[in-house]
Write a structure and sequence with these properties.
Length: about 625
């Protein structure tokens, strides 16, 4: 077996003539490699560590595991199974669990010269440590302990530490700490019930082993297109062990090309690279390229190669699209055309990847062109699906539950992790930094909190101009010297009463900032709304949820949705987000079956888009 060839596989190879668009992506990531992988999912040994003695007692050197658990899966489920219970086990303070399994390396015919083994966790957390044959591993980013539970992380495995049969040990710890990025999982501050959910943590996505080159491109590609000059800016991350001269070659093909088809666009970039990791931005001209939009989700295939001095090419592939999103006056512009956002709030909760796929198709059937993925991390393949369907995505950083210097640091690190892994998708158009001041409750009184949010907003404007950014969705947006530190002025409005709804909308568009939502819409310096920002009602409805009222289901709910949408479109509002797509725990206000994806309201009910002329 030749381990130096890029097509060296740990599983069966794909046929070379298979069209790219039909090639399944079995891994929870956006980028494909030509090498294959070995999933380490399945049955693992499992043990709880209630006294947190495992580190002190050296469980990574050897331990008797009493239970078995299926990876991926949540610690809560594994705890319940270990105790013979059918429902996920609730914990209220701290949980520590250990997992272990063995895996066998394939036969190696010659020494690893250009390649190495890499171990990747699709997501795991909140605090993860990993050992190989009793030796603690360090992530490529240099972490002995990986923090976070929504994004992937990887380890390079040194050849001298590998055996024919290897023992992989994982320690996962989590707490109810309100300073960690929790989203809507309960904490010491927000307890389960109502809009707060049971924890779902631990081994939540696949783990896999693959061969990668010593000198390669990482699975992180950022894309920023400017449609006027037909230029595409690519952010590429290199990983180098052998410093020297390299060539970065970018080739762009039609989506669905067959092998042998010539590239539409190509360019070479000579680089001198030192050992370590480096981000590099390069620009590619794409004259005549088709733009991506919900009406025409045109995608291109990027083949990126890092070529060494001997001509060996390490390659990754991904798709991308060219699009421009802009906040201009009272409209949101997509590709320089005003676009009304018919949105829906989506909380995937514990849904499987297959269920999330059904949800995405269902939300498009409702007539939505926007899905607001609410304060949660999802399988990255869902972003791929949105790219292909033409669904705009509004994503959010899972929030901490309290405001402090440490919670802001955790928030910033979570944001950067998410950006690194999903900034290539044309479907992702809006980011929320916070929601309803969760994790920034002192936003109106603490200048440090406002400074952090303002600085982060400015950072996003400069480093990631391909996105619109909302500082604190729903209310209490920050004004500094009369300038809103948000690309959208958003409001969360809940009432089941139609006359009250009309009154709230009238006051909102008239520029009333106090008494419309639960808190003032703007804090900080004085701000005077004169339609200089797009106005989005980013949550409304909630019909069926006990705290919000309104019709439970059936024709009455259908008619109420239609009436409320008509009132929104009768006013100078740029978009709205109906709440919500599926039921989740106590929130029984969904219109999509969480398992089958079937609709409980007529298809197209949320589609209100009509041609809109820009206002001078």
């Amino acid at each position: 077996m030749n381990l130096e060839h890029i097509n060296y596989g740990l599983s069966a190879s794909q046929e070379e003539t298979k069209p790219i668009e039909e090639t399944p992506n079995p891994l929870p990531r956006a980028v494909l490699r030509l090498n294959n992988h070995a999933l380490l999912d399945g049955e693992w040994n499992f043990a709880l560590d209630p006294d947190d003695s495992g580190l002190r007692d050296g469980w990574y050197l050897g331990h008797h595991y009493e239970y078995k658990a299926q990876w991926p899966g949540s610690i809560e489920t594994h705890m319940a199974q270990a105790k013979g219970q059918s429902q996920p086990q609730v914990w209220q303070d701290r949980v520590v669990a250990w997992y272990e399994r063995e895996f066998t390396l394939p036969e190696i015919e010659e020494p690893l010269l250009r390649s190495m083994f890499q171990l990747t966790f699709g997501a795991c957390g909140y605090e993860t440590r990993v050992w190989l044959n009793g030796r603690q591993l360090r992530t490529i980013e240099g972490e002995d302990v990986h923090y976070g539970e929504y994004t992937s992380f990887s380890y390079e495995l040194r050849e001298e530490n590998l055996h024919l049969v290897n023992r992989l040990t994982v320690r996962i710890a989590d707490t109810m700490d309100a300073e960690t990025t929790r989203g809507k999982q309960e904490s010491h501050i927000y307890k389960r019930g109502g809009i707060w959910y049971q924890t779902y943590t631990g081994a939540v996505r696949s783990v896999w082993l693959e061969m990668v080159e010593r000198n390669r491109l990482r699975s992180r590609v950022g894309v920023d297109s400017v449609v006027e000059d037909q230029l595409v800016r690519f952010n590429i991350t290199t990983r180098i062990h052998d410093p020297g001269l390299y060539t970065l070659r970018l080739q762009v093909f039609e989506r669905g090309r067959r092998n042998g088809a010539p590239p539409l666009y190509t360019s070479d970039f000579p680089l001198r690279l030192e050992a370590g990791q480096k981000q590099q931005r390069v620009v590619l001209e794409m004259p005549g390229a088709k733009l991506w939009s919900p009406e025409a989700p045109n995608l291109y295939q990027l083949v990126a190669q890092l070529i060494d001095g001997e001509g060996y090419a390490a390659q990754i592939e991904t798709h991308f699209g060219l699009r421009k999103i802009e906040s201009r006056g009272k409209h949101v512009y997509l590709n320089n055309e005003p676009t009304y956002l018919d949105g829906i709030l989506y909380q995937p909760g514990t849904a499987t990847y297959e269920e999330m796929q059904r949800h995405m198709h269902a939300m498009q059937k409702l007539g939505c062109n926007l899905v607001r993925v609410h304060i949660a991390g999802v399988d990255p393949r869902i972003y791929n699906l949105a790219d292909e369907l033409g669904l705009l995505l509004w994503v959010e950083v899972p929030s901490p539950h309290t405001s402090s210097p440490r919670s802001r640091q955790n928030h910033q690190e979570e944001l950067l992790r998410m950006l690194a892994l999903i900034e290539s998708h044309p479907s992702v158009v809006i980011w929320s930094l916070y929601n309803e001041d969760w994790g920034c409750q002192d936003i109106a009184t603490n200048p440090e909190t406002r400074r952090y949010i303002t600085d982060t907003y400015h950072y996003m404007q400069i480093e990631h101009p391909q996105f619109l950014v909302v500082d604190n969705d729903g209310w209490q947006h920050i004004s500094q010297e009369g300038r809103l530190k948000s690309d959208l002025l958003t409001a969360h409005l809940y009432t089941p009463d139609l006359p009250r709804w009309r009154d709230l909308l009238d006051r909102l568009v008239a520029g009333e900032l106090i008494g419309v939502a639960a808190f003032p819409l703007v804090i900080g310096d004085a701000f005077f709304y004169r339609r200089q920002k797009p106005l989005i009602v980013s949550e409304w409805g909630g019909f069926g949820f006990a705290d919000y009222g309104g019709p439970q289901a059936g024709e009455e709910r259908t008619e109420r949705i239609r009436q409320f949408k008509q009132e929104l479109r009768a006013r100078p509002i740029a978009g709205d987000v109906y709440t919500q797509a599926t039921n989740i725990e106590d929130e029984r206000n969904g219109v999509v079956d969480p398992h089958t994806g079937e609709l409980s309201v007529p298809p197209g009910i949320l589609n209100s888009r009509q041609p809109t002329e820009p206002t001078p």
